[in-house]
Design goal:
single chain; alpha/beta; four-stranded mixed beta sheet; binds NADPH dihydro-nicotinamide-adenine-dinucleotide phosphate; binds guanosine-5'-diphosphate-rhamnose
């Protein structure tokens, strides 16, 4: 039986990946950092928190001895490194923490794999944020990185370390450069889930108005369960590599908000510009969205769109679920949770 170790198992991708690996018959070791409150809601929503082949173990990327103990003790065949301070906005206020988790944490795992068992396969969760102010569009595996945030810069470091350990020491180290991928398990600080949660609460009369930052930003949004499937394909391939995972389509924050309100049968219209822009209910004229300049980032990545041709050709991977369907699934989940008074 294959043993897979996932760092960041309590996050969106970690939960979907754990479910998929369990379905594939693996034994899964999930790294959970200790906290005063339980952060297992995603594993519980997927019904796998108590699965007999899932072991949750204490693991913090900031604990220097943690990775050694874990790798030597559990002897996994593969490591999926998903843990990080992953919220780009917070990387401006906590740049060192972001570097230590998203950057140095990766190096520590690679070093320990090299020392303990170089046959362990390694997956690094890289990000489209590494392209930042990309000079070409769409971006692919050959596009130069131009990160614009502490998060993106830390991820560039980790990505190159994974590539270097592959080339220098022959480790099976893969790097997946993933564009934004969403689901009902997305954290509420990210803009898609913030919108779907607010739309549900407005629909239920629990919120008056949604406040957002930069409405002009455009992202290439895919479906999280499909993206973790590509991670497993990368780790099962004959050779390690770097792959862009994206849909090739972009939409703006305005587009996503329009879709989300449409899911509760409300048509919105945007009026005004800049910080005075609002969105109103086309039927009643009620203001549903306002811009809050406090939510602007010190530096912004305005537009990202990726070309997944290499993943399609080498892994047979194809994103299928369209953004409209992802949005409806998220709104429905948030309606369900908010109706039940559950806040996740
Ligand atoms: P989440 O923010 O949902 O999950 C992050 C995970 O990292 C959580 O389990 C969190 O634990 C854990 N974590 C944070 N700090 C530490 C630490 N010091 N030690 C151990 N664990 C820690 O992220 P996603 O699931 O969305 O993303 C997974 C990875 O993929 C991240 O590295 C992210 O940067 C990257 N990525 C994500 C994309 C996306 O669109 N989702 C796109 C491209 C890359 P806790 O629950 O305790 O907070
Ligand atoms: P991103 O995702 O920064 O792309 O990082 P996020 O959803 O946080 O922001 C997307 C865009 O929306 C704009 N925006 C807002 N964002 C948030 N969070 N809240 C708001 O109120 C708001 N208003 C407008 C942002 O300015 C931005 O332009 C995600 C994370 O999952 C990273 O870990 C991952 O690496 C990248 O995607 C690819």
């Amino acid at each position: 039986m294959k043993t897979s170790f996932i760092t960041g198992v309590t996050g969106q991708d970690g939960a979907y990946l754990a479910r998929l690996l369990l379905e594939h018959g693996h034994r899964v070791i999930g790294g959970v950092r200790r906290s005063a409150s339980s952060g297992l809601w995603r594993l519980e929503e997927l019904g796998i928190a108590s699965h007999e082949r899932l072991s949750l173990v204490n693991f913090d990327l900031l604990d220097p001895g943690g990775a050694v103990r874990l790798l030597a003790g559990h002897r996994p065949h593969e490591v999926y490194n998903l843990a990080a301070q992953s919220f780009v906005g917070a990387s401006f206020t906590e740049p060192m923490l972001t570097l230590q988790t998203a950057g140095a944490g990766t190096l520590q795992l690679l070093e320990n794999i090299r020392a303990i068992d170089p046959a362990i396969r390694f997956y690094q969760a890289s990000s489209s944020e590494m392209f930042g102010l990309a000079r070409t569009s769409p971006q692919d595996e050959d596009t130069p990185f131009c990160p614009r945030t502490p998060y993106g810069t830390a991820k560039v470091y980790a990505h190159w370390m994974a590539v270097n350990y592959r080339e220098t020491y022959g480790l099976f180290a893969c790097s997946g450069i993933l564009y934004n991928h969403e689901s009902p398990l997305r954290g509420r600080e990210f803009v898609t889930r913030k919108i779907t949660d607010a739309v549900a609460r407005i629909r239920l009369g629990k919120l008056d108005c949604l406040h957002l930052g930069n409405l002009d930003a455009r992202r290439d949004w895919g479906y999280a369960p499909e993206y973790v499937d590509a991670m497993v394909r990368m780790m099962s391939a004959d050779k390690p590599g770097t792959y862009v995972l994206a849909t090739g389509r972009t939409a703006s924050i305005r587009d996503f908000a329009t879709m989300a309100f449409r899911a509760v049968e409300v048509e919105i219209q945007f009026r005004g510009s800049g910080v005075d822009e609002i969105a109103v209910d086309a039927r009643t004229g009620r203001t549903l969205i306002r811009v809050d300049p406090a939510l602007y980032r010190p530096a912004e990545v305005e537009r990202l769109v990726g070309n997944p041709a290499h993943a399609r050709a080498q892994l047979g991977w194809e994103p299928v679920v369209p953004l409209e369907a992802i949005c409806v699934e998220m709104v429905e989940a948030d309606l369900r949770r908010n109706s039940a008074g559950v806040s996740l």
